[in-house]
Each structure stands twice: as structure tokens, then as C-alpha cells.
Design a protein that fits this description.
Blueprint: H1 2-21, E1 35-36, E2 40-44, E3 56-63, E4 71-72, E5 83-93, H2 97-100, E6 107-111, E7 125-127, E8 130-133, E9 135-139, H3 149-157, E10 167-174, E11 177-186, H4 204-207, E12 211-215, E13 222-224, E14 243-248, H5 256-275, H6 284-296, E15 307-311, E16 321-323, H7 350-355, H8 364-369, H9 373-387, H10 393-408, H11 412-419, H12 437-459
Helix pairs in contact: 6-9, 10-12
């Protein structure tokens, strides 16, 4: 029996290594694309293995003939198509669960100067109508069979938050093989068309900003909060820690003065939150908007993972602000941690997460804020504003229908499903096992309807 186990383990290892060497091809590598309403993205790595930690050089070409026009994969029979971008990129895999638990891998890429120099100088470019930058992602919806949860969250947040990423559906080829539908997305980063953050200096006002940070897991250089997470009734869970990562500047780029400064400001913010006197250290409305985005989606990873927040220089704004990212397990898409429910608050879920053995819990910030009547009054007022604008149910359903139409009108969802067959199959961490795209969209709509109704009841909004 032991020898059979070892043989099976060796075969599994060999197959996994083969998949990795082939850059994780789709289940069906023979999908044909003639024409599509989506931009077509070609990536050429010339057979090189793509890595997660280190970037490799690659070439990218994007064809996009514009709204209402078809894009053709056969560029010989269809010459003269509009090339949106063509050039060198630095490519790697990205993501945590979206990389580890999905055979369809997401990518990070940097656009580079032409011609490519040995030291690879980054070059800011405009892609698919999105503002110039050099830092981009190709998100790979897999467990999210609607392929729209991240984009939906961005659209919900856009009218309210200072910055929400833009993203565009596209169909991707890697070394000539069709890899399916992806979302070519902005990355939350410093930039003229992203977050307007100065590079921090070493003294005076310049030392005070700007910094981009993230509540996340302990998988790189991090700072540990002096305050543990708490239960729903405010009791400290002292064997858990809140971990904060450095996103801009990177840890290796931060001087000791900058590290000491930002650590001190995090401590000051958390001390103020603990004391209930926080209006000078956080942008309250930014935190409310973030909370409503997390709660609207009932995002089990909300607050505690990919919880991005930032600070500008004191002379501009001394308060921390939030930004929305990573919603692929939201809107009823998970069987984890009761994430499918429509009738509970995620910010109060530490008791359940702790019982389930989760390492990373919701920071105490949110329990403390929601115990403050002034904060909750503003939260209810803001929710009413949401519900009378882009979260009016008819408007929200129209957004879902619009995203679904983009994916179906020229068969992109069918090609993606041929490459990655998933209908009627459970995929981690699905709650609903959809039999078709229409079934998945119907489930998403019903879940949203039920969630809106419960939040209206809890927050005192009549619709």
C-alpha cells in the first residue's frame, strides 16, 4: 500500500511539474477564436516558464477596434486592425488563493521602454482606454463563474470612493494557445491615474506621505499591530495578530526614518480608534464607503485580507483612507465562513472565524467604529444615498445585465467555458454549483436582491 501511495505521489508531482513547465495550459487547448467583441491579448514568452516571484521578459500585443466593432484573431485575413498596445513586458504570476487554488492563473505585468534594455526600464502607457501607467494585472476569474464580481464591486465603489480600479474584459492567447477570458485591470498603486501619492521624503512634511499599506497575511516584510482583533462583544483575541504589509514604497525602499514614521502613525490611528476619538486620523466617509462595499458583497476576506489603505502628506490630508480590491469570493460565491449568507455582518464574524481556525481576523477597527452611534448614523445616511443612486436595485441589475451581455453577445463566455469546463462542477469555494452561465447570473441577482433587502432593514432604509 505504501509503495502504491509513493507511485501515485510521484505521478502527481510529475504531472504538476509538467503543467508548470507548460505554463498551466487550459483543459482544452484547441479552442478556436475567429471574432470577438472583446479585445484580444497575445502574450509571447517563447516557451519560457513563467514564475510567481520573478518576472520574465515577454511580448504583448493587444487588438481593439473600438466599441461596436469586432476584433479578429486572424490578422492576415483581417489586416489594418487597431493595435491598442504592442511592446515588451515584464511578466509574472500574481495572487494568493487565486493562484494557489485555481488552475487558471492571474498575471502581473509591467510595460517597458522600447527597445528593451538590459535593466528593463518601465514605461507608462495607456491601455484599453485606461490612464497611463506601467503596472497592470490580468485577473483570471475561475471560481467566480459569473466573471463579474470584481468589476461589479469596482463599479459600485466608483461614484463614492476617491479611487476605484478600472478593468476591461479581454480574451488571452499565451504562446498561441487560447487561455480564455481575463480582466485586464489597473493595479492599486501610486500614479497620476491611480492614487495620487507623493514619494515620501526623509524629513519634515515630505516624511509624512505618501504611503500605501495593506492588512493582509504574514508572507513578506510586515508590521504587526499593537492591538489584537476582538470578538463581536469586544473581547481581545490575544493569540491572533493584525498584519500590515508595505505596498508603496516597498519595504526595501523605506528608510529607517520612514519606517519609524509610518509605524508611529499606524499606532496613533489605532490608539485613537480604541479611544473612540478618530476623526483626525481616518477619513470617516472613506472608511464608511469601504465598509458598505465589503458588507454589500458580504466579502469573507473583507477587512482582514487585501485591506488596502493609504496616507498622503500631512499638508494635503493627514488622515488614512481606504480602497476596494479583491471581491472574487463576495456576493454569495463561497461556502467558507458562512459567506453565502445574506443576513449577517462580516465585520462581526471574528467569533466564527476564530472557531474555524482562521489565522487572519478582522481588525478591531471595524467593531470599534460600529459601536459609535455617530459613525453608525453616518453609515445609515450613506447607505440611503447609495440606494437612491447606483445601488437602486433596478440600476444594479442593469449593471449585472450589461456585464453579462458583454460576455455573451459574441460567445466569449462559451469559449472560456470550453477552455475551462466548470458548469455543473463544484469549484473551490463555490456555494452554488451553476449548471450554466444564465444559472450563475440568476443566482447572483437573487443573492443581491436578498442582501439589499436585509441591509435596508438593518440600516433603516425603505425601498
Amino acid at each position: 500500500m505504501r509503495s502504491l501511495f509513493l507511485i501515485a505521489l510521484m505521478l502527481f508531482t510529475l504531472l504538476s511539474c509538467s503543467k508548470r513547465a507548460e505554463n498551466f495550459p487550459p483543459d482544452d487547448t484547441g479552442v478556436r477564436l475567429d471574432s470577438t467583441n472583446l479585445p484580444i491579448v497575445w502574450i509571447e514568452v517563447d516557451g519560457k516558464e513563467i514564475h510567481r516571484d520573478n518576472r520574465i521578459s515577454a511580448r504583448m500585443k493587444i487588438i481593439d477596434n473600438g466599441p461596436g466593432m469586432l476584433n479578429y484573431a486572424d490578422t492576415v485575413s483581417h489586416p489594418g486592425q487597431r493595435i491598442d498596445y504592442e511592446g515588451d513586458i515584464a511578466l509574472r504570476y500574481r495572487g494568493n488563493s487565486t493562484y494557489n487554488d485555481s488552475p487558471k492563473k492571474p498575471y502581473s505585468f509591467r510595460t517597458l521602454e522600447q527597445p528593451l534594455h538590459r535593466c528593463y526600464n518601465k514605461q507608462k502607457v495607456k491601455i484599453l482606454g485606461m490612464g497611463k501607467d506601467d503596472n497592470w494585472a490580468l485577473l483570471a476569474p475561475y471560481s467566480d463563474k459569473s466573471m463579474m464580481r470584481d468589476l461589479l464591486a469596482f463599479e459600485i465603489s466608483r461614484p463614492w470612493m476617491e479611487y476605484a480600479p478600472e478593468g476591461r474584459y479581454c480574451e488571452v492567447f499565451l504562446d498561441g494557445t487560447y487561455y480564455g477570458v481575463y480582466i485586464l485591470s489597473e493595479v492599486i498603486s501610486r500614479g497620476k491615474n491611480r492614487l495620487h501619492l507623493d514619494n515620501p521624503g526623509t524629513r519634515g512634511d515630505e516624511l509624512t506621505g505618501g504611503y500605501l499599506l495593506e492588512v493582509d497575511c504574514n508572507d513578506e516584510k510586515t508590521y504587526t499591530s499593537k492591538y489584537p482583533p476582538v470578538t463581536a462583544d469586544g473581547k481581545p483575541l490575544s493569540d491572533r495578530r493584525i498584519i500590515i504589509q508595505y505596498k508603496h514604497p516597498d519595504y526595501d525602499e523605506l528608510s529607517s526614518a520612514q519606517l519609524n514614521y509610518i509605524h508611529g502613525r499606524i499606532d496613533r490611528m489605532e490608539k485613537a480608534l480604541a479611544a473612540g476619538s478618530y476623526s483626525n486620523v481616518i477619513d470617516v466617509m472613506s472608511f464608511i464607503d469601504y465598509q458598505l462595499a465589503m458588507e454589500m458583497g458580504h466579502n469573507v476576506d473583507g477587512y482582514r485580507l487585501s485591506g488596502k489603505f493609504y496616507k498622503r502628506r500631512d499638508s494635503t490630508d493627514p488622515r488614512f483612507k481606504m480602497v476596494v480590491w479583491d471581491m472574487n469570493q463576495a456576493y454569495g460565491n463561497t461556502n467558507r465562513l458562512e459567506g453565502w449568507r445574506t443576513d449577517t455582518w462580516i465585520y462581526q464574524s471574528n467569533d466564527l472565524m476564530y472557531r474555524e481556525g482562521e489565522v487572519y481576523l478582522v481588525p478591531f477597527w471595524w467593531q470599534r467604529l460600529n459601536s459609535d452611534p455617530q459613525y453608525t448614523a453616518l453609515l445609515k445616511e450613506r447607505w440611503a444615498q447609495y440606494r437612491n443612486s447606483n445601488l437602486d436595485e433596478a440600476a444594479l441589475m442593469a449593471t449585472v445585465d450589461s456585464l453579462a451581455n458583454v460576455l455573451t453577445v459574441c460567445g466569449a463566455i462559451d469559449r472560456n467555458s470550453q477552455a475551462w469546463p466548470r458548469w455543473g462542477v463544484w469549484v473551490w469555494p463555490n456555494k452554488h454549483v451553476a449548471e450554466s452561465f444564465d444559472d450563475e447570473v440568476s443566482y447572483l441577482k437573487q443573492w443581491i436582491h436578498d442582501r439589499l433587502a436585509w441591509m435596508d432593514q438593518e440600516l433603516g432604509v425603505r425601498n
